[in-house]
Each structure stands twice: as C-alpha cells, then as structure tokens.
Amino acid sequence: MARLADYFVLVAFGPHPRGSGEGQGQILQRFPEKDWEDNPFPQGIELFCQPSGWQLCPERNPPTFFVAVLTDINSERHYCACLTFWEPVEPTQEELCARDAAERDEEADEGGPGALPPPTPSPPGQLFAPKTLVLVSRLDHVEVFRNSLGLIYTIHVEGLNVGLENVVGNLLTCVIPLAGGSQRTISLGAGDRQVIQTPLTDSLPISRCSVALLFRQLGITNVLSLFCAALTEHKVLFLSRSYQRLSDACRGLLALLFPLRYSFTYVPILPAQLLEVLSTPTPFIIGVNAAFQAEAQELLDVIVADLDGGTVTVPECVHIPPLPEPLQSQTHSILSMVLDPELELADLAFPPPTTSISSLKMQDKELRAVFLRLFAQLLQGYRWCLHMVRIHPEPVIRFHKAAFLGQRGLVEDDFLMKVLEGMAFAGFVSERGVPYRPTDLFDELVAHEVARMRADENHPQRVLRHVKELAEQLYKNENPYPAVAMHKVQRPGEASHLRRAPRPFPRLDEGMVQWIVDQATAKMQGAPPAVKAEKRTTVPSGPPMTAIVERSGGLHGNSARRLEVVRNCISYVFEGKMLEAKKLLPAVLRALKGRAARRCLAQELHLHVQQNRAVLDHQQFDFVVRMMNCCLQDCTSLDEHGIAAALLPLVTAFCRKLSPGVTQFAYSCVQEHVVWSTPQFWEAMFYGDVQTHIRALYLEPAEDRDSFSVGEAPVQEDERSALDVASEQRRLWPTLSREKQQELVQKEESTVFSQAIHYANRMSYLLLPLDSSKSRLLRERAGLGELESASNSLVTNSMAGSVAESYDTESGFEDAETCDVAGAVVRFINRFVDKVCTESGVTSDHLKGLHVMVPDIVQMHIETLEAVHRESKRLPPIQKPKLLRPRLLPGEECVLDGLRVYLLPDGREEGAGGPGGGPALLPAEGAVFLTTYRVIFTGMPTDPLVGEQVVVRSFPVAALTKEKRVSVQTPVDQLLQDGLQLRSCTFQLLKMAFDEEVGSDSAELFRKQLHKLRYPPDIRGTFALSLGSAHTPGRPPRANKDKGPSFRTLSRNLVKNAKKTIGRQYVTRKKYNPPSWEHRGQPPPEDQEDEISVSEELEPSTLTPSSALKPSDRMTMSSLVERACCRDYQRLGLGTLSSSLSRAKSEPFRISPVNRMYAICRSYPGLLIVPQSVQDNALQRVSRCYRQNRFPVVCWRSGRSKAVLLRSGGLHGKGVVGLFKAQNAPSPGQSQADSSSLEQEKYLQAVVSSMPRYADASGRNTLSGFSSAHMGSHVPSPRARVTTLSNPMAASASRRTAPRGKWGSVRASGRSGGLSTDVGSRLAGVGPPQANGAPPEPGFLRPQRAALYIIGDKAQLKGVRPDPLQQWELVPIEVFEARQVKASFKKLLKACVPGCPATEPSPASFLRSLEDSEWLIQIHKLLQVSVLVVELLDSGSSVLVSLEDGWDITTQVVSLVQLLSDPFYRTLEGFRLLVEKEWLSFGHRFSHRGAHTLAGQSSGFTPVFLQFLDCVHQIHLQFPMEFEFSPFYLKFLGYHHVSRRFRTFLLDSDYERIELGLLYEEKGDRRAPQACRSVWEYVERLSKRTPVFYNYMYAPEDAEVLRPYSNVSNLKVWDFYTEETLAEGPPYDWELAQGPPEPPEEERPDGGAPQSRRRVVWPCYDSRPRAQPDAISRLLEEMQRLETELGRPPERWKDAWDRVKAAQRLEGRPDGRGTPSSLLVSSVPHHRRSLGVYLQEGPVGSTLSLSLDSDQSSGSTASSSRQAARRSTSTLYSQFQTAESENRSYEGTLYKKGAFMKPWKARWFVLDKTKHQLRYYDHRADTECKGVIDLAEVEAVAPGTPAMGAPKTVDEKAFFDVKTTRRVYNFCAQDVPSAQQWVDQIQSCLSDA
Questions:
Q1: Is residue 21 scored above 70 in pLDDT?
Q2: Do residues 224 and 332 touch, judged by C-beta distance below 8 A?
Q3: Could you list the residue ranges forming a coiled coil in this record (predicted)?
Q4: How far apart are CA 1572 and CA 1629, in angstroms?
Q5: For strand 284-289 and strand 265-267, is the pairing parallel, antiparallel, or unpaired?
Q6: How far apart are CA 1073 and CA 1096, in angstroms?
C-alpha cells in the first residue's frame, strides 16, 4: 500500500528579492509540515509550478492544470500536480503575504515587505497574481490528482459548505494499493466519489493515450528516430506551448522504451530558470515551453522535437543509427497499418463500408504492442548470453555482448551495439537477468512468441492480429475493471474564474490537518501490512538465438565440404601424413575465412587434446599453429563468434619439446592478434568460466562430468543450464540455515578467486612476447598499459602500418620499452583483476593477495620464456623454396640480391583466382630483386595445388610512381609483417610482405637503393645512359683524333658557338635562365663559367644568318639537315636548304636556320619552317610574344588543300598588345611592345598570304565550294560543332600551371560581340542572320572561311578583337592542364590496379572508378579538338594551335591532326618521324614529365605522351586497316617511353641532347653495338625478325583523312592498362620474354606430326598472342620452321608476306570465282570503314562482316583467309606455288565405297605427289577437302570385286582396292582404262617414295 499524496502545498506569487520585473514563487503553506521519513519534501517546487516564470497578468485567466515530474537523488520520480488560478493583487494582501512568508520561511530574505515592481501602464490598473495548489505524490494517477485539486478549488470558488482542512487531511491520508489489479473507491469528504484502479503488474508502464498522441503530433518516421535517439543515448528536447502535452509526450516516449528503463535526466517540464541544464554533457529527455525555442536552437548536439509543428530536427553532427533491417521497414509498415488502417483499402475498387477505428486509448496500446514485439525480436535469446557470476548472497549477472551480436549476425550493426553498451541495457540485465523473479508480458513474449513472430513476418494480417492481442493485454493491465469507473466530483460552474472571487484562497488550519494525518498514521500502524505476496517463478529462457537475417554467405555456401577438408587436414596432421596435410593446407586456410570452419577447427583440436595428443613434433606443431593463426586473424577485438574463446584452452595445451626440460606451448606463437589485448574479451571469458565452475558447485556430483568444458561450449540440452541451477538455488535460499548460507557464499567466493589466479596466468601467457626484445607486438599494443576502452584503435594502427613505427628501429626506442614489457603486462592484468573481482564480490583481502601475486606470476613466466626463446633459436630453419633468379638484359646488373617476400594480390581478380576462373597464382612466395633497370619479383604460388608455375612480375625502376610502407599478413603464417607497396606507371603493382628472415634494415636498404635508382641526381645516372658507356659520367669523352672531327666534338662545338653567340651580347646584364630550366630546377651544368643564358633582347644584327657559314657551322648544318624534321619537311615540299640567296622565290615557305644555335628558342629544333617573306632577324622579335619564345612555325602542309598546320606556345600578355590587345591597356615599354606586336601581326599576315588561295586579300577569299551541303557530307550530323569546346573539368578560371609574374595574363576590356557564335557558325558553314532580320548581304560573304584559325586557350583569348579583315579568327577552347592529366592518371592507375581487393568485386565498381578518373573524358577532348582541326585543314583553312606552353597539349593535338590527315604517318616509318619531329625535336619535356631525376621528383609523373598513344590506340580500334603498325607497337612505346631503357625519350629538348652529346653520336662511334641506344633502332631490328609490330590488316586507301568518333561511349579502355602476363613479366622487353632470339614454339612434339598435346592458357598468366598466335603469324612461323628443316636459309617474314599478298592480288581474277575481297585487298572501298567509323560515301553502317562473308565463299588462299586455322596442314604448301593446279599430279572422278554399311559415292579424287597423298572432294570446284589417304600408309593396290550397292553399269574390271594399315578402300572407275590409269599412277607414286 502507498499514500496517494505525500504533500499538499500552496504556492503564491511573491516579489523578486532583487526587485527585478519578474516575481518568484513563495510557499504559503505545506502539509504535513514535517517531512515523511520515507520521503523527504522535494526542493524547488516553486520553480516547477510556473515553468515560464512568475508574472502578474492584466486579466483573469482560466485555471490551468499540469503534472510536472521531479527526480530525487535516488532517482525516484515525484509527480507534482499543479492547479493554478489567478487572484487580483491587493497591496494589503501583498504585504500580508510578504510578511507571512518572511515569518514562515527560514530561507526567505529578511527584507521586510518587498516593494511591488513599478506597475505597468495598463488603464484599469488591476493586476492578477497566480496562485498554485500542488499535490506531490510518488504515484502516477493524473486523473485522480486533477479531480482532487479541482474539488479543492471548486469548494473555494463556489463557497461550498465543506471544510477545506478536512478535504486536504483526507487527501493526505488516503492509502491505495500499488499494483495487482485491485480497485479502490475513495472520497475526500465533500460528497465526492472516485474509483482508483491499480495496474495488474507494476513493471509495465502506464501510458493512457500519450503514445497515440505522440504519433499524431510527430508521425511515424519522426517518432522512430526519436525512439532510436533515446535508446542510443542522444539528447532529446520537446517543445510545445502546452505543458500537459510536454509531459504526455515524454511519458509516451518512455512507454515505448519498455522493457528498457530510461536512466538519464528526465524532466518533462523544465522551468525557465533552469534552461542551462540543456547544455549538460549527459543524455536527457526534457520538455521546454515553445517560447524558449530560440535558446534551444543554439544547442549543437540536441535533437529538437517540436510537438506543435510536428517536426524533428536532427543537427548535422548527430548521427542516429537506424534499427537494423529488416526490422526498421517491418516496424514502419506495421505502425502505418495501426495508425492508418484505411491505407490498405485506399486502392480497392469496392472498399468495405467503414472500418472500425480503435479508440485513442486502444490505438495507444496497439502502438506500444508494435514496439514490444520489436524489442522481443531484437533481444530474442538474450538469456542465453547471460553469465551467472554469483548466485549467493545476491545474484551477480553479466551479459556476453560480443557473443550476442555474433550469434544474431549483427556485429556491424551500429544501433544494437550502442544499445547494448548503454546504461538502460545494463539496468535491463541487472533487473531482468535475475533467474527467479516475477515475470511479465515481455518475458512471455521473448521466450515463447519469437517463433510465431518469425512465421508471421510476411503476413501483415497475422502480424496485425498479434499486435491486437498484445494490445488487449496492455489495455487490461491499465484498466482491469473497465465497466466500473464511476466518478462523482463537483466542478466549478462555467466561467466561474471571471466572477469576482469572494476572497483570496484562505489560510488553512495547520493543526487540524496535522491531527487528521496523525490519526490515520496511528490507525495504519495497528493494521497488518496488506501486501499481496508476489508470485515468483523461474524465468523462461526461450529458444536459442538465431540471426535476425539469415545471411547465406555466398562465398562459403558449400560449408559441409569445407568442414570435411578442415577435418581431414587435422587428422592428417595428427596421423603424421604431412605431405597430404600440406596439399590441403591452402584449401583449409581459405575455408577458415568461414565461421563454421573456424568452430569446427576448434572442436576437432579440442577432441585431440582430450585424447591426450597435445604433445606434437615440430612439423605438427607448425601446422597447428598456422591454422590457429589463420583462425584468429579474422577475429575482431571482441571475438563475437567465440573462436578465440574456444582456442584459448587449446593454445595452452598444445606444445612441443625443444630440449629436455624445455617445452614450447602454442600460445607463444599466436600472440600477434588484437583480441588478446582487449579487456572485454578477457572479462567475457572469465565470467563464462566462472559460470561453468559455479554451476558445477551446485550440480550433483553425478552430473559433474563436464565441469571443465571448453570456455564457451554450448551446454547440452538434457542438462540444466546455469540459469536453471541459479533459479533453483535462489528459491531454496530463504529455507537454508544461516551456517549453510555462509558456507555457500564462501565456496562461491573462493571459486571466483581461484579463476582470477588462473586468468592472471593465462593472460601473462598471451601477453608476454616470446622474444621480449622484439617488442613490435607491444608497440602495436602500446595500449596495454592505457587500454581503458575497447577502442578499435589497435586494429587501425597495425593496419595503417604507421610511418612512425618504421623509424623506431634506429632511435633506440626499443630498448627503452623492453624493460617495461613486464610492467605493462602487470598493469594490464591488475586492472583486469580489480574490475572482475570487485564486480564478482571477492573480499578485499583476497584482492590484495592477488595484487601481490601478479608481478611474481609475470616474472616467473618471463624466465620460462627466456629458455624457450633460446632453444627455439636452435631449431633448424624450415626449408624454404630456393630463389629463382630472374633473367637480365645485356648490360643490366643486379643491385640488390633477392629478398624473400610474398607477393600479394593487387586487387585485380584474375591472378588471385577470382570469379573469372583460373588458378590462384597470387599470393606467391619468392624473392624481389633490384637491378639497374627493373624491380623484379620471381616466385611460385603459395598454394601448392596451383602447380609449379613461375610467377614473374616486374617493372622498370624508372616507372615507379608511388612507394608506401604497409603492414600486411603473410599468406602462409598469417603473421603481420612489414611490407612495401610499389606502384608503377606501366600498370604493375608489387604488394609485398617481407619474410621474417628479412630484417628491417635490409628492407630499408632496399627502399633507399630503389629511391636512388628511381631518382638519380643527374640524367647521366639513368640506365640508358650509364649502360655500356666506357667513360664515367663526369669525364669528357675521348675524341677520335684520326677521323677528323667526330660527331661528339661537333655537338660540343655547336653548343660552344651557341654560348659564344649569346655570351657576347650582354656582359653587363644579369643572367636570366629561360623558364623551362628554372621550372625544372635542373642543377646547373658543370662548366659554370659560361652558363647558358638568354638575354631579353638580342640585337637583330647578330642573328642574320651569314651566307658564309664557318666550317664547323657547316658541319652542324649538315647534321641538322639529317634530323627527322628536315627529312619530313622535304617530303612535304616545305622548302629545301639551298643557298639562302638563290632560293626560288616562288616557294611560299623556307627552312630557316635561324635557331641552329638554339639562341631564339631553346626548346625548338635547329631548323624551322617560316614564311618566305619573313626575314630571320624579325623572328627574334616575334618570338618574344610567345611563351618560352615558341613562336608559330609550320609543321605540316596538306598535299591536297595546301593548308598548313602551325604550332606555337601560348601568347604572352606583352605580345598580344598590338594584335589582340584591349584598347585601354597601355604598357610601360609601349614602343618596344608595339614593334614586336606589329612584327607578330606581320608574321601572321605573312603566313596567311603564303597560302596560295589567299594570296590576294581583296575580298575574293570565299571558299567557293564550301556550301553547307558540302559541310554536311563531310561532317556527320551529330557533330555540328560549336567552336567553344567547354571542358567540364577545368574550372573556367583555371590559371596556367606556373604563371610567371612578368608575363601576366591577357586582360580584356570587354568581350567582343558574339565572337564565339560567329566563329562557330562560320565553322558550321551557316551565317547568322543580320541584326535587322534581312538576309545576309552578298558583299560581306558569310559562308566564307577565315584563312587562318588560331586555336587558343579560352582563358588566354578573353576579350581579344577579331581581325578586321577576317583573315584569321580565334577559336577559344577550354583544355585541361598538365596537373589535371597527372591527377586523372593517378585515379586511372587506382582504378585499373586497385592495390587491395575490392569489398564487393563487381564490374560496376571498376567502371565507376574509371569514370571518376575522367581519363576518357580527356581523351575525348583531345580527339574532338583534333577532328575539328582536321576538318578546318581539309577545307583549306590553315590552323595555328597555340595552347599552354606549346609542348604538352599542343604537341598532342598537332601530332593527332597529322596522323589523321596524312596516311604516311600511319606507317611504321612515318609514325617514327612524327614522334621524332613533334615530340622530340619540338621539345616535349620527357624528363620533366616523367620525373627522371631527383629534381623532378616533386613534380611527379604526368603521362602526356601516354595519353597521345591512347588516342592513337582509339583511332586504331576504329580504323584497323589504316595503320601499318599493330596495337602492340603502341603498347611497346607506352612502356618504353617511361622505362629509360633507351636514350630516345630522355631529356627535354634537342638542345639538351646535343649538350649531353646524345644527338649525333649514334652515327659517329658505334662502340656498343650490342645495346640499342635508340628505341627506333631496336624496333627496326626486331621487325626484321618477327612481325610483332606489323598489322596484317593494313590496306590503306590513298589520301584518306580519318575522322574518328570521339564520344566517350565510343572509347574503349586500352588493354595496356589492364592486361598482365605473370609468366614472364611485361612482354615489352622482347629478349626476356622470348627466351631464344626467334620466337619459340613452346611444346613441339618431335617429328612434326599434328599437335595433339593440349595446353591451358591462363588469362593473366600467359601472353596470349604468343600462346595462341593469330593464324598468319602461326603460318609464318611454321614456314620458317619447315624451311629450316629442309635446310634452306629461312626467308624473312616480310618478304614471304609481301609475296603472298602479291599472289593474292593476281589470283582469283581469271577464275571468275568472285573477287577475293580478303582482309588484304579490298575491292569495295566502303566496306572497310569498320567498327563504327562513319563512312565517306556509300551505305552507312556496313562493317567488316561484309567482307568476311564474301571471303568465305571465295577461293582465297589459306594464308590470307580467316579459315587458315581450320584447314589441313597440307595447305601450307600452297604458299610455295602461285597457282594450286601444280599440286595436282593426277585427278578425276572415282566411286568410293563408304565405311561399313554406307553406300558408294562419286567423288573428285586428286593424287598429289608433292604432299604424297590422295585427297578427295565432293566435286571438282569444291575447295573443302573431304578426306585424305596418306600414301605412306598404303600397303598394296589390288584389283577389286563389285561389292553390294556398286554402280550397275560398270565393268567388273573397273573395280580396285587400296589397302592401308588402317582399312581397305574400295574404288570403282568409270571404265576399265581409267581404272588401269589410276592404279598405275598410285603405284608409281608408291615406288617413287
């Protein structure tokens, strides 16, 4: 029984002591005056009566009622029911009150009557003050309180004839039962009657309608997120204008949390004065009046629910974890069914008439039922994870969180994790974990209804029925007697508050009230306590746990087979069948990724321990340890699946004898796992073991057989669980005698104590490293000492392989730590012992004893370990496979010999046996070698079942782009080892784990050497230059005196002259390095005294070429003439180098030697093509306007339209002034600037006028034929192009890479009107209409084309003026910058070679990362611009490409344009010329972009040239017949332009190559013929030997201009980025890949019989082109082989191929058997634009398949057709003769009898003496041979007899038989003579043989 009300208080308004505007509450009276003993008077009631503050009011408000909740220090809740009404303020009363209060209240200020605040200027002057009646109770009966206070107010207002003292006295003495479902009628003695019903069970919360109201106000999603927020301990704040609603909402939220209890701050109504409580750091649920919303908004981590507005605001920094799926969605849908039942019927065609909507109270219970079900599903099976640590004197229970999460399959779930760690759940365990207690609805639900809930999941109606049933029970709990609720309480009349009250609320007589209270108390004491005895039972445990979602692990689906493998392997190990075990081990290690297999392993090993087989030999020990390590490596620190727990007893059992008296246990080898240093793991293990032992204490001795079960072994069903035992013991406890009780308590305590000692030992085993000097373990676990929390920091640190830890080796840091290993372990164990012993009630004496023991235990163990460590060092090392030495190139030397490493998978799935099939070649075990040229790994797969394949992965040192240390697990022993990850720009990745035998110093040495080789301090240190050079890099070379001046001296001369020329002019001036050199930060050349520098202005006079060149200069000239550029200029007819005076003036362009000394532009070639009319001395001035002095020069001329392509650097700000300047930008050096810009204008004018069709600028420069229709035929419609090609990647304001201060940028006064549309429309060949809408004037011709288009950077050409004469026009485009190429390439590398296996491998993830890299978008950009330029050139306009510094994107575009426009560059020789001219001579900065030296290290690798090759590859794919070279050639260049094997791609310009003496020496001294210095020379040599660079489909059309598609959808990822050959490393170093010089046939059986031996070709292992060469290569190889066999000198493949092609062209014409439209010769021109390339003419869309179809019907020779692979070998001979007829010695028709039971058939027989065979065909014209009789097998030819079914008309003598070793053939000729003829012919053939 309990009091209904504890206190009745009267609180009134009082002035604020400090005289501020607000008042404060004053307690006028309280009853009883002295506190109850069991329940002191709560403080601060005055604040809670008026939460918004005490204020006077100008009008009389109606009375209000609400219930506030106060929580006391014991977290008991007090309900304060407050009824407030207003009374007029009368000064006298005010003073009286003040005086009264002063006397009565000890705490009030002794300040006398306080003055009223200055009255507000309200006209009537009458103010009203609030007064509050407060009822304080520990029971929550809101309605009773409302009625009781209402009654007191009614008596006062209505002046009823009832003593208020009586009523208050009765109220305070009313006693009601707490629970049990009884009902009680009470009356307060004013003729009233109230019925109070108590709930059936006390534990279920009472919600009335609060939950339903909460859902109505906020909606489902919001309430769910508030629910999750409250459970995961976030701060929740409710806002509303109504106090009653606030308290209802808070009550509703708490009711939803049942069975958990909210244990943090809970204040449904917070007074204004206490708002700072909101900034408390602890979680809370608080309600605040909406008036204080502004204060709430300043809080950063509070979730605000606005009840009036229906919103929930979650701050950004707060993450509320949602419920685990599928519970979240299921709960959501059930809630909507309860709240909105019509939703289900809304779509019905014939909805039922009306659905009955539950009453609000019932709906409330239904909503609660949904959440009750949710908790039952979430916590299902929780009792199986309870550990009974103590039973007497009080139960101590712990919850095994990790096991619960693991078995529910929710380890990753954020929500459940947080709930289980929360305070509410801890309360739940201590309250509900007790095994013997009263049960309630939740216990029943979680134990018995789970199966039903599972079954109902997919049946909404059944779920709803269940919810309704639960709701009924909840409702019945709150209202056990629904019918009897009859109240009779007087209420005040309508608007009674407005009537003038007769008097203020009276003072009550304290004495009288006290007397009533005392009497009642006396009566109570006499009466016996009417306590209803609680019914206590054993709490049901329910079914064992299941996962919330059955996650069928796709990878480990076939687990039975895996478990079988694990069991077999273990039994092999223990039976000593080591070879068998070794074969199974990789499969076992793979299987152990699965949970079931790990459990199985623990169980199997446990059985062996039980059978006393724990002492192992070395090999067995090794296997067992390996498997345990593999098991443990996937355990998280919490060990959710109990694997570490199951292995813990085993690691202390298995051992091996090292020497007499020294035994090594398995625990010393499995320490490197994070789980051992996690306190939570040890606690759970400890409590589990304690439970087992305590259970054993109470079981009968008979049942004691399994007391020492494995730590977590599930208890058998037939035995009683620990909880059952505990429940039984708790039931008996009161019946036991005092002594017996003491004895049991003591027994339990000593059990716990002995376990604590046992665990102190176990922990020291697993925490003290075997070799205390090797404290890597401890460094990773620096946490041992400080590990308060179970943070996962351990895992992250070890994985991240933090950089710091690799430096510790030298810092002497280790020694400092070793001495403290023991200390750290002791501290860790002590902290553990403290925690578990205090929790499990070990006495303090015992605890002290433990603290003394721990250091001794640790010390003792350290001593044991020293002996073990000493002995284990003496064990013979395990036999490792011997290292395979890599093959090296001539001249390549090994720098570091093999370091043993494991090569791990790099994220590409093929090598690791991914879904694409194939064996798991990786991880492989072998060694890494470092040579002067490459980093090479060679080894074997660790999985012995893969076979003996050698795995090679290598890349050039120069290609290394990123090297990082990683910490990885070795694939065999699963130990954490230091590793390295090396990434190369040739798309190889070496992710290696060093073997234990590799010391950290060796690994460090490897890194340092690698770095030294990758970034040599000087370019001379690179492999290409240091290879085979006799002289040391520092010394000048010997000059060969006898042969006149060698090329080496020449090049030196050249440079000296250049230096002289330049050096003379400015002695006084400060030296100024050209930007390109500054940019590279190159160390200055050795000869410091005349460092090369360029002055700002050279006097023009010094630069005019003298007609009389000095002899050395002439030599220089001649060598310059031999350069690629010059050869190409002469081919294009762009001028010759005849004497400068007698030059034919008719030629528009000339070759100018103005730059032969590299004085004008350091990065240009020595000879340049300039307009005839421009003098050399003007060029110097023009060059100043352009970046890096790269002024416009001609690089190609169209043979057809005579348009020229020019290239230059971007414009300087300074130079644009005259030509393009904005009018208002005066520059300081006006005259000079003007002069040079005028020169520039003149220069462009000269370019324009040197084009034949624009020679006169008189306005006749129309492109006559250039109508829009013509355009249309040229450009396919989807590509009507506007010139401004915007770039999605480049921010429009992007600056150049490194703007030089003094160049500035082009500033513009304003955009020129409509420039871009103008250019765009003109390009499209359509003119914009005139402004006034009239047609364009004929005089000002629109469709005309400008003579010259200047393609420039959008940023550079801003605000430029178009040329008035419209002779040139600017096309601003947006291009990407070098740094974007760099960034994009980095991402591309990551996409193609991820580095670590993807979490969920799918093609989509590769494509997504490919798209993110934006690499294809850049390729698209380049092709788009190039096609635009090609169009312009083709239509007869010249184009100047003037982008960035003129050496990256300009080079790409210019080269692509030439490749597309000129078929010559699509040949092998032409492509070489193109690269030499545009890339090497015109100064693409290979060394800078490839970061070749130490200086370039910071700038990183920028693959501009690779991007160009990728573009060529894309064009090659679209036009496979237009290129003489194969795709392999492009890959070869892509690989070797970064490999630094050849000198070709070193340095940044011809100037630098000359200076280093590289350019001309090749012809001078051939000292080292064995090593190709130049990549071209190498390609040439190789091409003679093998057709690998040749494209058999090459069949060019003359003057074909290619226009490839450039959309990203048309682009393919280049296989150079993705393919891999692990058999021999990258196939681009031909000598290494090939073995012997000529390409070998791997498995050739002797005797040349048809090959039957099959060979598996693995996608990422073998080089496919070599394993399965295409038919033509195969035939060419075969020919060479046969010729060698026949003793002929094998002819070169090219000659053979050319002959076959010639024969192909001749043959087929006279036969009339269709045109031989083979792949080589095409008679139908439009069939050949294959693969989606749009056509010039003819039907669109025809593809290669057409020509292939016609091919099959034609009689083309085997060598050239696709069928070569299918034909018999005999066709090989057809390559020696031009016509097939010569192979037929004799032919004719014969009847042949088929095999057994088959009829006779007439066939066309051919006797072939050359091939020594008899062939037959269906008919004469048939080319498909139907069969062959080999004459070598014929034994005899004899006359035959007619067999059944033979032709009737034929003479008998026309039959003959041919007998072979296999069978007899029956033939029949048409007549006797022809039969005789056949027999003779065959006989003669046989005798010849």
A1: no
A2: yes
A3: none
A4: 12
A5: parallel
A6: 10
Amino acid at 539: V
> What would the two tokens of residue 1873 be?
């003579």
Query: Token pair of 794, please?
Result: 């351990």
Strands 924-931 and 655-659: unpaired
Q: Give me the pLDDT at residue 1833, please.
A: 87
Other CB atoms within a 10 A radius of the CB of residue 738 amount to 7
Q: What is the three-class DSSP state of 303?
A: strand
Q: Is the pLDDT of residue 811 over 50?
A: no
Residue 1168: both structure tokens together: 């340049």
Question: Which of these, 1264, 1149, 1271, lies nearest to 1203 by C-alpha position?
Answer: 1149
Tell me the three state secondary structure of residue 304.
Answer: strand
Distances (CA, A) of 720 to 536, 552, 691, 717, 1166: 19, 32, 13, 7, 98
pLDDT score recorded for residue 1889: 64
| Residue pLDDT, tens place only, 654-710 | 998 888 888 988 888 888 888 888 898 999 999 999 999 988 888 865 444 444 443
DSSP β-bridge partners for residue 993: 902, 979
User: What residue has token string 């929710």?
Assistant: 410
In the structure encoding, which two tokens stand for residue 1156, read together? 């032969």
| Alpha helices, H only, 386-509 | 401-408, 414-421, 423-432, 441-448, 450-456, 460-478
Q: Are 749 and 841 in contact (CB under 8 A)?
A: yes
Q: Which of 615-619, 722-726, 1119-1123, 1311-1315 has the lowest mean pLDDT?
A: 1311-1315
pLDDT band at 1031 (very low <50, low <70, confident <90, very high): very low
Greater pLDDT, 755 or 109: 755
Q: What band does 1241 get if pLDDT is binned at 50, 70 and 90?
A: confident
CB 590 within 8 A of CB 598: no
CB atoms within 10 A of CB 73: 6
CB atoms within 10 A of CB 778: 23
Question: What's the rounded Cα separation, in Å, for the pair 1440 and 1538?
Answer: 30
Mind listing the pLDDT tens digit for each residue in 1359-1376? Answer: 555 666 667 888 888 888
Write phi, then psi, for 1492 (nearest 5 degrees).
-75, -25
Tokens of 299: 């809080």
Q: Is 1826 in a helix, a strand, or coil?
A: coil
Mean pLDDT of the 451-476 span: 90
> What confidence tier does 149 reach under pLDDT thresholds 50, 70, 90?
very high
Average pLDDT value for residue range 1117-1131: 74
Helix (H) and strand (E) counts in the chain: 60, 42
In total, the chain counts a number of residues equal to 1889
CB–CB of 609/650 below 8 Å?
Answer: yes
Under DSSP, the state recorded for 357 is: P
Q: What is the mean pLDDT of residues 1226-1242?
A: 58
DSSP designation for 238: E
Beta bridge partners of 1372: 1352
Q: Are 930 and 938 in contact (CB under 8 A)?
A: no
Residue 19: CB atoms within 10 Å: 12
DSSP sequence for 1197-1252: E-TTT--EEEEE-PBPTTTHHHHH--TT---TTHHHHHHHHHHHHHHHHHHHHTSG
| DSSP code per residue over 1614-1661 | -GGGT---TTTS-TTSHHHHHSSSSPPPSS--GGGPPP-------TTT
Give the burial class of 1502: count Cβ atoms within 10 A of its Cβ; 0-12 exposed, 13-18 middle, 19 or more buried: buried
Q: Is the dihedral of CA 919, 922, 926, 928 positive or negative?
A: positive
* Residue 1445 pLDDT class (50, 70, 90 cuts): confident
Exposed, middle or buried, 293 (CB in 10 Å: 0-12/13-18/19+)?
middle
Tokens representing 490 are: 């007087």
Assigned token pair, 395: 């139960």
Largest Cα separation within the chain, whole Å, is 158
User: Is there a contact between 950 and 1662 (Cβ–Cβ < 8 Å)?
Assistant: no
Residue-level pLDDT at 1244? 86
Bridge partners for 657 per DSSP? 663
